[in-house]
Amino acid sequence: MTIRSAAAAALWAALPAVALAQQPPAQYSQVQGNRAGSPTPPPVLTVERTPAPGVTPASAVVRTDPPQAPRILPGLPPPDAQPAPAPQPLPAPKAAPKVVPAAAPVEVPAKPAPVVVETPPLPTITVRVEDCPAPCGPDECAWGRFEWLYWAGSGQGTPPLVTVSPPGTPRAAAGVLGQPTTITQFGGNRRNNDFRDGFRFTGGWWSNGDRTRGVEADFFFLSRSREAAAASSDGSVVLARPYFDAAAAAPAAELVSYPGEVAGSVAAEATSRVIGGGISRLHNLCCDPCGRVDLLLGVRYLHVGDTVSATENVTATGDGARVPAGTAYSVNDRFATSNDFYGGVIGLTGERRKGAFFYGGRASVALGGVVQTTTIDGSTVIGGVAQSGGLLARPANIGTYRTTAFAVVPEFGARVGFQVTGAARVYGAYNFIYLSSVARAGDQIDPAASAFPDRTTDFWLQGVSAGLELRF
Question: For residue 116, what are the CA distances in angstroms to 81, 112, 121, 187?
Fold first, then answer.
């Protein structure tokens, strides 16, 4: 059913009430009876409803009495019109959506703040992985070491070279060895056995990628050791140079200062110098990531040189001198030795690393020959005229003497150090070197000056060192 049909049906149902409501009150009352004084009775209106079977009335016919032509009320369909279709019930209006009142917000309790527990900081433990790259030690192919040395060597023995005696000492006993009044001023003991500074330089490289074959060279030197004494007098103090008088077969002394005879000065000096070096081929014997042991084969050089000298400058002040009074003269003696060792060396060198620390050592022995050269020189200058020979260097022993002897040079060193960076290390070390045969200058002095004594002895060096090693 359409909306239009539904509206017509609703209008039909309400029509009686509408028709009655539209009649004027007077006419409506006439239906009930005649109004007094009305000549003609009003027509009676009858409203008939003719409903269709089963259908709500769709039209109404209004009749009058007396009958009149049917009059169709406005808004209604004509009588012969087809009955309107039965009205269909309107669909129930959709129920308005229920408004659910908003629920009151539920207050959710907030999460509790985290509890901060103060705990003491744990100690930091630094674990250093051992710097032990495989297979045979550090990855660098070359290295260099610079060492400061503080070494001492065995001193050289020297005979007494300068003596003094108190004033009033008889001339025959003045400065003579063995006399109770004689005091040795210089000599009579070992000289040049003090500690001295020095430096050593070492460099090497591995010749193959496995670092099992390499070459290493080193050179070291010690500063010159020097001991000296000097004295002078105007004649009030007795100064002398002792010697052995071969003709008298007794000790004697040459006066440098004696009351009434001579006045002068005397100076004596003893020096020593040591240098060395070598080059070796390294062959690895065994190794692991943290250590290695290598065989070294090479050559070794060692030099030990000494000098001993004495010089006097005298002026005769009386007739007792060996020259006329007023005459000046000087006497010079000098003894020098040079020992040069050349030999082949064989030994072992090794190192072990533990974290940032390392320790190592070297032990070797060199076998070869030592060339020993001794030079003895002396002179006397009187009145500007020089003569050969002094007091202890006489024509009988003056000259240069050279000999070659077999010698052995054992060497030992140990060191311990710390890895500062990947390429730099510092270390301290102890070293010992021994030379089995050397000629020392002091040993070549013969108090009788009758011949070249050709004496030999041994020599050693030992001391500590501090170094820096760089790897490339």
Answer: 95, 12, 14, 83
In 3D space, the residue among 342, 345, 340 whose CA is nearest the CA of residue 366 turns out to be: 345
Contact of 31 with 38, CB cutoff 8 Å: no
DSSP letters for 33-59: SPPTT-SSPPPEEEEEE-PPTTS----
SS3 185: strand
Per residue in 57-101, pLDDT tens? Answer: 444 444 444 555 555 555 555 555 555 555 565 555 555 555 555
Q: List domains and CATH numbers for the chain.
A: 1-34+42-89 (no CATH), 142-471 (2.40.128)
357 Cβ contact list (under 8 Å, min separation 6): 416, 417, 418, 419
Bond prior to 135 in cis (omega within 30° of 0): yes
**Do the beta carbons of residue 374 and residue 452 sit within 8 Å?**
yes
Q: Is 300 helix (H, G, I), strand (E, B) or coil?
A: strand
Residues belonging to the chain: 472
**Which of these, 310, 349, 314, 318, lies nearest to 442 by C-alpha position?**
310
Question: Between 3-13 and 15-22, two packed helices, what is the crossing angle to 10 degrees?
Answer: 50
Rounded to an integer, what distance in angstroms lies between the CA atom of residue 283 and that of residue 116? Answer: 63
Report residue 443 as tokens: 């040993």
pTM > 0.90: yes or no? no
